[in-house]
Amino acid sequence: MIKTFIRERRSWIFLIVLLQLLALLMAYLDPSLSLGSIYYYVFLAFVISSIFIVIRYFKETSFFKELDARDSTTDMTSLPEPTSPFESLIYEQITSPIEQIEKEASWKHLLLEQEKDELLSWIHEVKTPLTTLRLIIDRTDDPTLKSELMHEWLRIHYLLDQQLHQKRIPFIENDLFIEKVELEPLLYSEIHTLRSWCLKKGIGFDVELASSKVLTDAKWLSFILRQLLTNAVKYSEEGSEITIQSFVQKGQTTLSVADTGRGIDPRDLPRIFDKGFTSTIQQHDQHATGMGLYLAKKAAPPLGIHISVQSTIGRGTTFTLTFSKENQYLQIQGV
Length: 335
Known about the structure:
Keywords: ATP-binding, Cell membrane, Kinase, Membrane, Nucleotide-binding, Transferase, Transmembrane, Transmembrane helix, Two-component regulatory system. By secondary structure, the chain is an alpha+beta fold.
């Protein structure tokens, strides 16, 4: 701090010293001037200048010491008011860039909110012609053409659905309605939507629900099940079967979705819920977005659901949803 102060004030320290040297030079060159008096003047000037510099050092550097003592996250509006032109200059140099950054951050946040609202509006608008397209496909007589069109329609429908829920997840707490939900109608509704795809691949479902009710939000649970079921159908072999079971274990309802497909490589298992991650052994699969399981994992905690997975290469994959007990859910929500 001392070095910084001297470096900042070296110009007027040099001026003070120069004036004292000038007085000594004049006394040396002019015999009419008393050398003793000049020495006395220079001594007094040196003492007074030194006291002045010390006072100014402690006064001006106290501002910086207060800055160093504060946490980096402290609001700049709470900084002490400057008491000198030097402090005012430093205060302005520090606060001006921060205020500019805050304004830019606020503006960018506003733009992001506007972009999100426009995207949500666009998704809802696209759903109308998509519904019309579904009605047109239903009236198609050619079964082969109808099956192919429905498959592509499903892909568009699920991509839009993912995008919609991705934008809603940051505010999921505002969109929850927790109640006792029947699993059976929820599951069969999602299976029915996948019917054309399943018929095309010859995939069947074996549903056994020993526990039929869970405490959750129906809309968001449907979204999670949608991601698991589409994955199961997508990676199952033709003519295979997907097993869905529910049971009570240690007072908690557990729902599993198991397929007999290609399975997941052990090195991929820790990363399947990461955003944008796709399989490292199926690089030719250009349709995978790596978003379905990521969004399902993000949506699960606010619902009090824990998602786990077990998989064996060549033998299939089982995703398990474990629902919280009622009192556990209240603890999660902080009630």
